[in-house]
């Protein structure tokens, strides 16, 4: 693209009169240099910071606009995420003072930039900083925080990516007095890095002390932390009476032994996410579900029994979002009991990915009754669920915003995409996301494929994402821009 000139056809070209005769409409040519600064600033606001840095190399004027503090309110300095790299602590300190300042609301820092000097400067120069991410995940050792006397005091959101082997207590002791206003806490573990062989597990952060310093937490996310168990859940519930959301996905030491106490203490708890936990049905059945305020529940990839699932789902009065895929115990009996109990009346989203023990007949009965109330439906990962079931229930999915279907396993039948697309376009006008995960070898298109896509585009005006047979993950190259 040539950034030097923009050709603009005037919508209301000037009309001049000479001796009663109208002149021809004239075409105006405007160079981009004539655009006001506020217009350029607005254009730059749609760019990533990496792109903004590239724009800063065009000319002096663009450089001044690119470094306007209003474009730097949310900043990630993790190169693998944003492509931005700060070469030295001195450069970062200068950026905090000159480019970020009072405008900064959110910042992400990698381990090499997390020092007491940087944190002091953020506390002093960025009084409106409310969201912070500190990435210690690659740390082999920490900086010396013995002299740290200041830390941002207005934080509402704090995310800490933990190291596998580095103990964080020395750092945490220094910030306990500054984080009592936190409302959202994310502790991200090293679940994805764990090797198959069992190694010694270190409790790299003291959760029991942390909970005492954060009494105002509403959201707690402990993701993939290999040392977190039921005692840590009990600790948070004993002090965080305003807790609304608890996520312990992929914390495989969580068995559910303190869940009953959790719900007795946390009356405001509406969201509980326990994907991949080693839950025991006995403990889950002890919870007083009928007295809970739970609306969103994720028990994906757990070993809960059919009896436990029936007991739980028939006692939760206001459940709206359920994710219960990859559970052998989730079968036709669960759907039948849940429907008959009437506790599925408020359901708006259902994810039963890879639940092979549910038959298409049972799903058809359930969806025929509840399909019109669903905003989201995930029936992926099941070889016996084909386009035939979807075609039969599409007319009741008229409020659906998200539909995910198909499996990457090779099927013995073909999926006729055109007919499916046509049905979706006619019955799902509110659709925003559509995923067809079937193997490409099973997809069949006709000469009317283009017409089917056009119908989907014209009738599903809110559609933002369309995925046809997602490709296998590939490594993406990350380009880095050096900030100065």
From TrEMBL:
SMART domains: FBOX. Transmembrane segments: none annotated. Pfam families: F-box-like (PF12937). Residues 29-75 form the F-box domain. It comes from the Eukaryota. This is F-box domain-containing protein. It comes from Plutella xylostella (Diamondback moth).
């Amino acid at each position: 693209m040539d950034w030097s000139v923009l050709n603009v056809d005037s919508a209301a070209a000037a009309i001049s009169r000479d001796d009663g005769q109208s002149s021809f409409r004239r075409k105006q040519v405007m160079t981009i240099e004539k655009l006001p600064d506020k217009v350029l600033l607005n254009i730059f606001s749609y760019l990533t910071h990496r792109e903004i840095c590239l724009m800063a190399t065009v000319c002096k004027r663009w450089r001044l606009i690119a470094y306007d503090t209003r474009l730097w309110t949310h900043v990630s300095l993790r190169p693998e995420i944003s492509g931005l790299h700060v070469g030295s602590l001195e450069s970062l300190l200068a950026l905090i003072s000159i480019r970020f300042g009072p405008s900064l609301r959110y910042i992400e820092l990698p381990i090499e930039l997390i020092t007491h000097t940087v944190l002091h400067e953020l506390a002093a120069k960025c009084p409106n900083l409310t969201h912070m991410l500190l990435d210690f995940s690659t740390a082999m050792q920490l900086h010396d925080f013995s002299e740290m006397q200041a830390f941002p005091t207005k934080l509402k959101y704090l995310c800490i990516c933990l190291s596998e082997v580095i103990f964080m207590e020395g750092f945490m002791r220094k910030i306990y007095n500054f984080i009592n206003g936190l409302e959202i806490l994310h502790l991200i573990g090293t679940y994805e890095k764990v090797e198959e062989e069992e190694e010694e597990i270190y409790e790299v952060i003291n959760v029991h002390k942390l909970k005492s310093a954060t009494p105002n937490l509403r959201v707690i996310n402990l993701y993939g932390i290999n040392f977190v168990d039921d005692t840590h859940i009990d600790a948070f519930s004993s002090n965080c009476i305003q807790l609304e959301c608890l996520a312990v996905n992929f914390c495989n030491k969580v068995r559910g032994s303190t869940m009953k106490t959790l719900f007795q203490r946390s009356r405001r708890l509406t969201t509980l996410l326990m994907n991949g936990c080693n839950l025991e049905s006995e403990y889950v059945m002890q919870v007083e579900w009928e007295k809970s305020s739970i609306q969103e529940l994720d028990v994906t990839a757990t070993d809960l029994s059919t009896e436990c699932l029936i007991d739980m789902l028939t006692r939760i009065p206001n459940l709206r979002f359920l994710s219960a895929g990859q559970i052998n115990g989730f079968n036709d009996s669960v759907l039948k009991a849940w429907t008959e109990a009437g506790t599925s009346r408020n359901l708006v989203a259902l994810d039963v990915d890879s639940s092979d023990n549910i038959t298409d007949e049972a799903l058809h009965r359930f969806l025929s009754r509840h399909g019109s109330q669903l905003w989201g439906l995930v029936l992926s990962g099941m070889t016996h669920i084909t386009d035939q079931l979807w075609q039969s229930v599409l007319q009741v999915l008229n409020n659906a915003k998200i539909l995910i279907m198909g499996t990457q396993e090779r099927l013995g039948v073909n999926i006729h995409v055109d007919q499916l697309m046509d049905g979706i376009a006619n019955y799902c006008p509110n659709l925003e996301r559509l995923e067809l995960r079937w193997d490409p070898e099973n997809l069949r298109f006709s000469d009317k494929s283009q017409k089917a896509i056009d119908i989907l585009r014209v009738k599903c005006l809110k559609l933002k994402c369309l995925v046809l047979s997602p490709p296998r993950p590939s490594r993406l190259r990350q380009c880095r821009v050096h900030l100065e």
